[in-house]
Amino acid sequence: MDYNSTDQRTINPFGYPRTPTGQYFQTLWNRQLITVDYATTWKQTYTKNFVGTTSFGAQLFDSRLNSTELRGDNFAGPGIPTLVSASLRQITDVNQQRVINAGLFAQQMIGWRDKLFITAGARVDGNSAFGQSFGLQTYPKVSGSWVLSEESFWPTKLIETFKLRGAIGESGKAPGAFDATRTWNPIAAEGGLSAFTPGQLGNPNLGPERTRETEVGFDAGLLNGRFGLVFTYFNARTNDAIINVAYPPSNGFSANQPENVGSIKNTGFEVQATSNLDLTSWAKLEARVQFTKMQGEAVDLGGRILTIDALSRSYVQEGLPLPAYVGRKVQNPDAFETPVIVDGEFLGQTFADKIINPSLTLSLFNNLSFEVVGEFQRGGHLLNANGFQNAGLGIWQPCFAAQRALRAAAAGDASGLATINAKDRMRCSINAAERDYSYWVESADFFKVRNISVAYDVPKRFTPGARSMTVSFAGRNLFRSTNYTGTDPEVADQATSTFSRRDYYNFLPYRTFLFSVRTNF
Predict the structure, then answer these.
(1) With a cut of 50, which residues of the chain have pLDDT below it?
(2) Given the DSSP bridges, would you call strands 354-364 and 368-378 parallel, antiparallel or unpaired?
(3) Cis omega (within 30 of 0) for bond into 323
(4) Is 490 exposed, middle or buried (0-12, 13-18, 19+ CB in 10 A)?
(5) CB 49: neighbour CB atoms within 10 A?
(6) 386: Cβ–Cβ under 8 A, 6 or more apart, which residues?
(7) Given this model, what pLDDT does residue 470 score?
(8) Residue 425 and residue 435: Cα distance in Å, rounded?
(9) For residue 406, which phi and psi values (nearest 5 degrees)?
(10) What is the DSSP code string of 444-510?
């Protein structure tokens, strides 16, 4: 059972410039995830050369989410504000969700001479969030591997171990708890009378999205195990993809509706290289680097352009990465001249298509280790809505020079514009009609130190009665390097959407420190 709880408060005290009498917002949020797994394996020996392994089991996931949003307005005076010290108090939202997913799985592996293996299996799932016309869903798989280095013809002096592998299988993703349901939101009408407004349109035919993926690759070991190489190519196609689609307000429902729409594909490859060095008899160094290249694309949407969030310029469109920012684009961004604007242009893909993960592990005296893990991401973009909003208020520092020149030009002196390029003239425009979120879609490339840790295996003489004890200390998100000008290149205020990202007054990822003691008896 995993239990997470958050008490989040936003407080504008008495005398705050925008709300002089103060405001108080509080969100109480908790999530419980109960997981039950059962698995068993039966091994068989058919002949001298053939063996088999039968596996079957079941899984149950019970996810419960509860949240309450509270608000208070108008404090009587200065002091430490609390919710009850506000003269106007209200519960603005209560959310209680429960989703249950249960499944069975079974697979059979056949092995020949401990070097050729074929596995076939299937999984059957049911989910409480499926629409009325969907029952149990079946996801099959087939995989195989061949240890070529066990064959007599293999040049083991060059490459000691080599395994070729491949697999094809299907998986599914269930919709959210109420995605298939038409909902109505209760409100207080005039005079405190109860009423309701349209919530979500609903779709009784909403079902899971299905992904069929093919993988091929190899694992290799060289130089007496000092160097390892793993390569995987994947090609996945998702049908009935679940995407939050914006419908015309004339339908009466303003919330986006999840729909099973069209097909999308993802292709790419992963390469991981590992090197182990014995520095001394008591010191070892392991270096690893993993490179992932992937490309996602909307293949078939029936000619539709799906609006994920028009305000955030987020769309799904055939032939473009999934999802994509589309909007107004400055065609001459670096020129010191009047901007040339074209609408409906591709501004960038939302998520990175290249990820590099380097890491180092130093082991000393067989019981002390230090590890550093980093990550590069390239190719992604993020809408810097913080910059857009604050530039419009005239308080975004990178726009100060451009806005001084623009104000002078509006007064008749355009000489200052000679040093302001076309891109900054639009991003920092003092004309409200010219301002647009499109100009604030930025590259979200970055490098981060994800984790630095030290672990110590306590000698058994200091842990009587215990088989082992490990003491560790770790720091996460300790360093970042990026040209992105907003809060952080990974933040997003669209918490429930996997397709839309916008940096809009978010908390950046926390720096966290973790101390742990793990003991086995």
Answers:
(1) none
(2) antiparallel
(3) yes
(4) buried
(5) 11
(6) 486, 487, 503, 504, 505
(7) 96
(8) 10
(9) -65, -40
(10) --EEEEEEEEEEEE--GGGSTT-SEEEEEEEEEEEEEEE---SS-TT--S-TT-SS--EESSPPPPP
Interacting residues of 245 by C-beta distance below 8 A, sequence separation 6+: 256, 257, 258, 259, 261, 306, 307, 308
What are the tokens at 506? 């978010």
Specify the 3-state DSSP secondary structure of 302. Answer: coil
Task: Say how far apart CA 255 and CA 307 lie, in whole Å.
Answer: 12
Query: Is the separation of the CB atoms in 115 and 151 below 8 Å?
Result: yes
Are the C-beta atoms of 87 and 76 separated by less than 8 Å? yes
Record the tokens describing residue 356, joined without a space. Answer: 């590099």
Amino acid at 301: L
- Only one residue has tokens 């208070």, namely 72
144 CB-near residues (< 8 Å, 6+ apart): 116, 117, 118, 119, 165, 166, 167
How many whole angstroms from its chain centre is CA 198?
Answer: 30
String of b and e for 349-365 (b: at least 16 CB within 10 Å)? Answer: bbbbbbbebebebbbee
Q: How many other C-beta atoms can be found within 10 angstroms of the C-beta atom of residue 239? A: 16
Whether 24 and 83 have beta carbons less than 8 Å apart is answered as yes
What SS3 class is residue 251?
Answer: helix
Please check whether residue 58 is in contact with residue 103, taking contact to mean a CB–CB distance below 8 angstroms: yes
Residue ranges of E strands in 318-440: 324-330, 341-349, 354-364, 368-378, 381-384
Token pair in block for residue 436? 């647009």
Q: CA 60, 63, 65 angle in degrees (round to 5)? A: 175
Residue written as token pair 């490859």: 269
Using one digit for the tens of pLDDT, what is the confidence trace for 236-253? 998 877 776 767 777 777
Coarse DSSP helix, strand, coil percentages of the chain, rounded to the nearest 5 percent: 10, 55, 35
Phi, psi values for residue 232, rounded to 5° = -140, 130
pLDDT digit string, tens, across residues 37-64: 999 999 999 999 999 999 999 999 999 9
Q: Which two tokens stand for residue 446?
A: 């970055």
- Burial string for 312-347 (b: 16+ CB within 10 Å, else e) reads bbbbbbbebbbbbbbbbbbeebeeeeebebeeeeeb
CA atoms 305, 308, 312, 314: torsion sign = negative
**Mapping DSSP to helix (H, G, I), strand (E, B) and coil, where does residue 15 land?**
coil
Q: Could you tell me how many helices (H) and strands (E) the chain has, helices first? A: 3, 27
pLDDT at 254: 66
For residues 43 and 51, the answer to whether their CB atoms sit within 8 Å is: yes
